[in-house]
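Key result, reporting period 2: structure in, sequence out.
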């Protein structure tokens, strides 16, 4: 189902947010699969962006890094005017807890930044604009799985800002005919994830025998997908026919609650369950997300390949082997955020 009008193998790719977790893993896969591709990463290098995430591709022919903000017209317009086949927008503020404390940067980057990119591709056409959205735009789904037609009911400022960017991108397809595709993936895990998110936080805390802060009951569930499966889905979409104007859910049907995830992380780090500590729940904490990704599977044949237990084991091993990557991140601003964000609850007697 390859689209021969789009030069997936030799094309010019602009990957925004490519120094972050998923963007970097995507760039690694892209350059591994298509060594002839020309890849420009545009990234602001916020606290979550890390030039080290691009070390595996830095010296490859065809790779270039540009530091800058997707909301900055004076940078974005001339850059996109250079000519790209694909613009893939991973750039975003991404952490729900931070969006609760300070939503401003979420609205700026996740809505206004998307607008800037869309205006630039309107003036300088591309073959495909991929807006990386999220399953969180559907809000919590207490049973079943959201199809692409389900209503959007985002419940926190991160999810709401992403819903804004998601629909704005679609509007540029419907109104101006820009070749936009929107993807909504479930929770990713894997190497290079900033250690504020559940898996890398719990793994690195466990390595240091620090408490693992569980929000509320620990029964909130997510669908966990390995980041390489997400990256492969995006590459598949880049090469597929008829994706313009479409939305594709991406998921793995691996529903686990926080306590179930923590159990596997403790098992693979060899640490005791006594590290689990309850903290005051996140306000507006969505209880469950689940997407139905049959539309993408039917259209392209893509399906997730990394089995949860093996993926989690590999992920734990990666953080164990890369302390030089994550230790410097758990300092300074991160520790201030951590102290402010978590309120540990007193332990019940007898526990
Ligand atoms: P991340 O926080 O690890 O990385 C985000 C990157 O964007 C960072 O490198 C950061 O420096 C960059 N960035 C932020 N603001 C920018 C700006 N104004 N201009 C340019 N660059 C900027 O996030 P991630 O987990 O890799 O998520 C990537 C994308 O995937 C996001 O759009 C997110 O909403 C989406 N997504 C994430 C998940 C998940 O589980 N992590 C699931 C579904 C969708
Ligand atoms: P997170 O990684 O922040 O992703 P999401 O965007 O889905 O909220 O959190 C995943 C789940 O783990 C979510 O139910 C909140 C929970 N969680 C904790 O219990 N403790 C933590 O320290 C973190 C970061 C998350």
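The corresponding designed sequence is given below.
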């Amino acid at each position: 189902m390859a689209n021969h009008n789009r030069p997936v193998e030799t094309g010019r790719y602009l990957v925004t947010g490519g120094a972050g977790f998923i963007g970097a893993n995507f760039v690694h896969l892209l350059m591994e699969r298509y060594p002839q591709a020309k890849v420009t990463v545009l990234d602001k290098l916020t606290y979550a962006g890390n030039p080290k995430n691009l070390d595996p591709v830095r010296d490859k022919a065809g790779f270039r890094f540009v530091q800058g903000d997707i909301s900055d017209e004076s940078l974005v317009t001339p850059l996109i005017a250079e000519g790209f086949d694909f613009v893939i927008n991973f750039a975003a503020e991404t952490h729900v807890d931070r969006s609760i404390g300070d939503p401003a940067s979420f609205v700026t980057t996740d809505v206004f930044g998307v607008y800037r990119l869309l205006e630039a591709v309107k003036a300088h056409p591309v073959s495909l604009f991929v807006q990386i959205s999220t399953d969180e735009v559907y809000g919590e789904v207490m049973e079943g799985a959201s199809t692409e037609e389900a209503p959007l009911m985002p419940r926190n400022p991160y999810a709401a800002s992403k819903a804004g960017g998601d629909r704005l991108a679609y509007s540029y397809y419907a109104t101006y005919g820009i070749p936009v595709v929107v993807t909504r993936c479930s929770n990713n895990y894997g190497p290079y994830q900033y250690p504020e998110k559940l898996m890398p936080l719990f793994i690195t805390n466990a390595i240091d025998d620090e408490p693992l802060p569980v929000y509320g009951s620990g029964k909130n569930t997510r669908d966990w997908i390995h980041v390489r499966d997400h990256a492969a889905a995006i590459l598949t979409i880049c090469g597929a026919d008829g994706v313009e104007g479409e939305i594709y859910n991406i998921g793995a049907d691996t529903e686990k609650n926080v306590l179930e995830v923590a159990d596997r992380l403790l098992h693979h780090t060899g640490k005791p369950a006594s590290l689990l500590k309850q903290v005051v729940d996140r306000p507006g904490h969505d209880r469950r997300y689940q997407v139905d990704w049959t539309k993408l599977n039917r259209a392209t044949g893509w399906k997730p390949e990394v089995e949860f237990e093996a993926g989690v084991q590999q992920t734990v091993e990666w953080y164990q082997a890369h302390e030089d990557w994550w230790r410097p991140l758990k300092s300074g601003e991160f520790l201030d955020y951590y102290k402010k964000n978590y309120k540990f609850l007193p332990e019940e007697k007898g526990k």
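Residues 135 and 184 are 5 Å apart (CA to CA). DSSP finds twelve helices and twelve strands in the chain. This case is discussed further under Risks and Mitigation.
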